[in-house]
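Journal club side-thread
Mid-discussion, someone asked how the predicted structure for our own chain would compare to the paper's figures. Pasting it here so we can look after the session.
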Amino acid sequence: MEGVADLELTPRQIVAELDRYIIGQKEAKKCVAIALRNRYRRQKLSPELREEVLPKNILMIGPTGVGKTEIARRLARLVKAPFVKVEATRFTEVGYVGRDVEAIIRDLVENAVRMVKQEKMEEVQDRARQRAEERLLDVLLPKRSGSRGTPSPWEVLLGGLREEEAEAPERENTAEKRAALREKLQKGELENRLVEVEVEESTPPGVFVGGLGLEELGINLQDMLGNLLPRRRRRRLVTVAEARKILTQQEADKLIDMDEVAQLAIQRVEQDGIVFLDEIDKIAGREQGVGPDVSREGVQRDLLPIVEGTTVQTRYGPVRTDHILFIAAGAFHVTKPSDLIPELQGRFPIRVELKSLTREDFQRILVEPQNSLLRQYQALLSVEGIDLEFSADAIAEIADIAYTVNSQTEDIGARRLHTILERVLQDILFEAPELPEKRVTIDAAYVRSRLGDLVQKADLYSYIL
């Protein structure tokens, strides 16, 4: 199984990979890199000691939009680990209407099953394509159905031999037709021909129990009733190109052993899973005894066994959470980490504070990451044939405005850049299809012309920017 143990990345290499997508926050990157490397080290220990070494969960403290979620998500992608991001506010104490905390692990397992299934699909893709091609040929060249009825005993005795002799050239002729058709199919000459294929509708009807969907209970109706409910089939008229995709998918599904997929998924969740628990500060604080927040401490107590290590029942089997890495995050503007219940605090021994973004950080965010916002807008407008460029002073002006607005209103981090760039480029994005000039340069003067009045009027930009 490919996982953390197979990707022998050093902490320095992990930080370098994260630097390609996230600007700054060196301390947080170091913490997650060490946590990931410790997983690799743990896999090299003896089985007895390996079970005793538990992950050191991380608590990230910092304002929104500074990279907390992105660090965790990129970390999981880097090592192909099962990952789930959840908001702590989605869960309620046992006994209240809402999602229970065990749904976190069920969601994580579902993600792992999809991941492993996709890997298995890629492994069997060549065989599935070959089998789909044979089925396509069967559809394009159906077998000749006998026009005669059941032969009598006399016909069998007297005419059987002559009938076989007559069918021999027919079989040879069919083989030649099939070979010729296969050649056309492989050359792509039949892609637009319409054929009829049978597809299976496997989606079970939605059933709700006491206000909860079946997924909340870890139950799948099709798994429960399986053979009792016949799968609905229908025939669709599609092109050969589309039929090839449908049949390849069907054949790949047949070639995959779902029991093996489930077993590998559970193993990967238990050894490599990462849970990002956002907005944990919203469930911190001591109880007041009244009001809508009465269950906050109850949610913390429900989370505790999941983080400490317990066994959760899922539709694929029991899952142990002992070695899942939990990364919690929160702004902690109103509350403090010490407002969490002591038992939960002890399960997040690594604390790291993420810093608010500076002007220089905003400038780097605009240009350095592989998926930077400026590159995204340039790619979008290139579809219209427009070459969009940003001058250095324009980038500095946008960064300065983002920093100023964040410091004087609510600090939403890098997300402020989305609002500002949409405002700056609004007219260009609207008029792009009709613009006669296909080369557009954004400079500082243009940025000020679009945002100058707003920035000068604090009462306006607090609403608009």
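Post-session note: The first strand starts at residue 58 and ends at 61.
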